[in-house]
Design a protein that fits this description.
The chain is built from ten helices and eleven strands. It is of the alpha/beta class and 312 residues long. The protein has an eight-stranded mixed sheet, sandwiched between helices. The protein has a three-stranded mixed sheet with strand order 5-4-7.
Length: 312
């Protein structure tokens, strides 16, 4: 089975609160090279590991993992809305294989996805539905969280499920690295926010606009050194990138959950999507990283990175 990998940070602030033009141009060039890498590989299936930000998955029912057999973009932050081209047969086949491997994973026939899924697709393809996709949700923000090593086991099981196919599969990990944006936490939230975290699916246009403008305002505060958010941590980001490139998963995913928050911020748990993607690639044998880009971009609340890799 031909397989390739691309992992990338995402940020809903791209285009809404950009860094200075030279940095934006640099990132655009990197993403352009990643797009060219994907075009040359020419996948006919994308398996995309991604988080959610209380748009599709809420506390009314919060699975640790979920595979989408059908999915629709909610269109947050001005991104494309509407159905994704989900390969239902592939999704259900992967789910059955993963369950046989002993990894408990939910299945959704009506998954709602946000920028965590949609942005990498817009980075890498000319249209949201350019290539059939299987979205794999990993809970990265809602406590309680299982240990990060579970993401590696999930990714390895997904990779094993793919091994028999003759399709050209691009594995994508979306999220991270260090960042601590204003994502609410249930234990600290006022009652009205608690209600939204439980039942706030499908907000009105006005409600979504208020939430998104609040994120932009928080990014302005963060860029100016205010707001009490945890700083980006390029040293920790480098450790994550170095460890995954070397296949040294244990250096990252065998750490306690508190370590991720201390080193990278509350949303640093999104590196679980990278762990899963690299584990899926590693299930095919040794691999090599072809490209790595990193820059701390406070305007996007992100230690922003993009990598590509292939089997060795």
């Amino acid at each position: 089975m031909p397989i390739a990998l691309c992992t990338t940070s995402h940020s809903p602030l791209i285009g809404l609160h950009d860094p200075e033009p030279g940095v934006r141009a640099e990132v655009d060039e990197v993403l352009g090279r990643a797009r060219a890498f994907v075009a040359e590989f020419d996948p006919d299936l994308v398996v995309l590991f991604a988080p959610d930000h209380y748009n599709g998955f809420l506390y009314d029912l919060m699975p640790p993992f979920c595979i989408g057999a059908a999915a629709t973009s909610v269109g947050d932050y001005g991104l494309p809305a509407g159905p994704l081209d989900v390969d239902r047969d592939a999704a259900l086949g992967i789910a059955r294989s993963v369950l046989r491997a002993g990894i408990d994973v939910a299945v959704s026939e009506d998954m709602q996805v946000d920028h965590g899924v949609v942005q990498p697709l817009t980075f890498l393809f000319p249209a949201l539905t350019a290539v059939p996709v299987v979205p794999v949700f990993i809970n990265c923000v809602a406590d309680p969280l299982g240990p990060a090593v579970r993401a590696r086991l999930l990714g390895g099981a997904v990779g094993d499920a793919l091994r028999g196919t003759e399709r050209r599969v691009l594995v994508v990990g979306s999220g991270g690295l260090s960042h601590d944006p204003p994502v609410p936490r249930l234990s600290e939230a006022p009652p009205e926010v608690v209600e939204r975290l439980k039942h706030g699916r499908n907000p009105s246009r006005e409600q979504r606009a208020r939430r998104e403008s609040g994120t932009v305002a928080a990014a302005r505060e963060f860029t100016q050194g205010r707001g009490g958010f945890r700083p980006l941590n390029p040293e920790w980001d480098a450790l994550v990138l170095r460890s995954l490139a070397a296949g040294d998963f244990a250096a990252v995913d065998e750490q306690p959950n508190e370590w991720f928050v201390k080193e990278g911020g509350h949303s640093a748990h999104e590196v679980r999507t990278w762990i899963a993607a690299y584990a899926a690639l590693a299930s095919q044998g040794h691999y090599e990283v072809l490209s790595t880009y990193y820059r701390a971009i406070p305007e996007w609340f992100a230690g922003f990175a993009t990598t590509t890799a292939v089997p060795r």
